[in-house]
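for the recovery benchmark. tokens below, seq after
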């Protein structure tokens, strides 16, 4: 009798020579390749319009590349593909707008993450079993919001709203968390508090986190690897171990230009 065989890969996201365009003429991404190892924190840094958000859309199947290959767990992400749609619940995606229901409670927002596990009727009526409600409270406790579970989302601070979005994504029981500038517009203290929540969740659930940042220093502080996107090209990738940069891959950038990217500006 044959044993069931499964493949466990070290890489959860693979991109090879990926280009992407919204109008088939102007390319937002050009021949980008990257490899994200399972269980790591991978940061993507770049200016507005550089193609960072498009990278996340390619990873979760919201967009199909114009050329090249994108793989999530050796599957091509495509929301039109029935086989892929079975695994979409394992991808926790937090957009820049967070996507919260502002007039609903914190608990109700978090429970949305459990909908894919319910049957069609219960999902439509939002009839959550007790074990799912208990899990939601556990997740809210993890992100430090269980005492505010009944509060309406519009009453929360910016940092608290981001914690709700993280909790909702964790409620999906994901393998990977994609977050698009989740700490932008926050002060440095609150931004680090939110990043610490993600770091704790990553360790507890053995998550892979892929996060878009506008702050290179914050990215270097929390990520294992940092990719820099400029005008649709990946111009730099840095390996980080604590406060030490252990390796980097770059194209035509000079050492001075590289240093300018991650050194704090002189005051």
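predicted aa per position
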């Amino acid at each position: 009798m044959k044993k069931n065989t499964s493949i466990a890969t070290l890489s959860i996201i693979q991109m090879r020579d990926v280009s992407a365009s919204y109008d088939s003429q102007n390319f937002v991404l050009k021949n980008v390749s990257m490899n994200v190892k399972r269980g790591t924190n991978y940061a993507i840094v770049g200016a507005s319009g550089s193609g960072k958000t498009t990278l996340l859309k390619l990873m979760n199947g919201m967009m199909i590349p114009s050329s090249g290959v994108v793989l999530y767990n050796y599957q091509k992400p495509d929301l039109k593909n029935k086989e892929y749609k079975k695994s979409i619940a394992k991808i926790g995606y937090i957009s820049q707008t967070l996507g919260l229901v502002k007039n609903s409670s914190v608990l109700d927002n978090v429970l949305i993450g459990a909908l894919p596990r319910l049957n069609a009727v219960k999902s439509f009526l939002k009839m959550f079993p007790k074990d799912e409600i208990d899990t939601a409270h556990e997740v809210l406790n993890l992100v430090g919001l269980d005492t505010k579970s009944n509060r309406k989302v519009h009453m929360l601070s910016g940092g608290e709203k981001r914690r709700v979005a993280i909790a909702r994504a964790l409620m999906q029981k994901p393998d990977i968390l994609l977050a698009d500038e989740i700490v932008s517009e926050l002060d440095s203290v609150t931004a680090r508090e939110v990043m610490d929540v993600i770091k704790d969740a990553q360790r507890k659930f053995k998550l892979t986190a892929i996060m878009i940042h506008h702050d290179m220093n914050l990215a270097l502080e929390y990520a294992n690897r940092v990719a820099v996107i400029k005008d649709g090209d990946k111009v730099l990738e840095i390996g980080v171990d604590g406060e030490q940069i252990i390796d980097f891959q770059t194209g035509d950038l000079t050492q001075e230009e590289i240093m300018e990217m991650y050194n704090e500006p002189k005051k």
